[in-house]
Amino acid sequence: MFLRNFSGEPEYLPRDGYPVAVQVLVVLPTYNEQANIERMLEAIRAAAPACNILVVDDSSPDGTAAIAEKVGERVGQISVLYREAKEGLGPAYRAGFAWGLEQGYDAFVEMDSDFSHDPGELPGLLVAAEAGADLVIGSRYVEGGSIPAWSKSRELLSRSGNLYANLVLGLGVHDSTAGFRVYSAGLLRRIDISKVRANGYGFQIEMTYRSRRAGASIKEVPIHFVDRVAGSSKMSRSVVTEALALVTIWGARRFFGLGPSDAPTVTPAVV
């Protein structure tokens, strides 16, 4: 794993009435996102120009990292963290968070690179973080949130998964599987991200669960979620299976007054 940095000093100045008082790192895991990455980086820069961006690339064979490098050379405030193999969402975020904590960032944005998360909604999440929330979740299932392009069956599956996680783990949030978030550095340190086990879809649930157990203040902000328009989805049945299995394991441990730390890693069959 190695890093290329294209800095250019960020200016932490007020924008549109929002005082940027913290240094924010946007962490973007990528794998074969050449169709989206340039536009995504430019859109984030336009929406939140004070933020730095870290692209965490799992050796994309389509040249995603090289495109990110070129954008970084042009606009600045972009770094590229190269990983040797495709390991999944969880390990990519853990690597990005660990790098950012070492660099001294105060807050970390987690979002997808495929425009399912609208960069234009990023300032709203940052405002909630600035107001004191340890974890801000861009939620599809609070008032004002929506998933305009999903079928009823897919939405039902997602809502059911969230309901199950809430009931089993006592999360107290509407959208524990959402992947558009802001974490404070202090919360990531309290969680100890090195102990996070989930690799795929369950990563979001585990991070929510660990945040709740760490006493985090959690705020949900409504967002409009859309499916990717370019590239291919990383979602699979095995990813959902992993999440359900892990939630069940954590729920059993919670019943006995135990935390998730020692739960075994689940490696689901590929289907």
Structural topology:
Blueprint: E1 2-6, E2 24-30, H1 37-47, E3 52-57, H2 64-75, E4 78-82, H3 89-103, E5 107-110, H4 122-130, E6 135-139, H5 152-169, E7 181-184, H6 185-191, H7 202-213, E8 218-222, H8 237-255
Parallel strand pairs: 2-3, 2-5, 3-4, 6-8
Antiparallel strand pairs: 1-4, 5-7, 6-7
How would you describe this structure to a colleague?
- The structure is a single chain.
- With 271 residues, the protein is of the alpha/beta class.
- The chain has one domain (2-255): Spore Coat Polysaccharide Biosynthesis Protein SpsA, Chain A (Alpha-Beta Complex).
- It is 38% helix and 15% strand.
- It contains eight helices and eight strands, in the order E-E-H-E-H-E-H-E-H-E-H-E-H-H-E-H.
- It has an eight-stranded mixed sheet, sandwiched between helices.
- Helix 1 runs parallel beside helix 2, helix 5 runs parallel beside helix 8 and helix 7 runs parallel beside helix 8.
- The longest helix is centred in the last third of the chain and has 19 residues, at 237-255.
- Mean pLDDT is 87; it is low at 9-20 and 262-271.
Return Rg in Å.
Answer: 18 Å
Largest sheet: 8 strands, mixed
Helix/strand class? alpha/beta
Shape: globular
Helix content: 25-40%
Strand content: 15-25%
**What is the CATH architecture assignment?**
Alpha-Beta Complex
Give the total of beta strands.
Answer: 8
Domain module count: 1
- SSE pattern, N- to C-terminal: EEHEHEHEHEHEHHEH
- What's the rounded overall pLDDT mean? 87
In the CATH scheme, the class would be Alpha Beta
According to CATH, what is the topology? Spore Coat Polysaccharide Biosynthesis Protein SpsA, Chain A
At the fourth level of CATH, the homologous superfamily is: Spore Coat Polysaccharide Biosynthesis Protein SpsA, Chain A
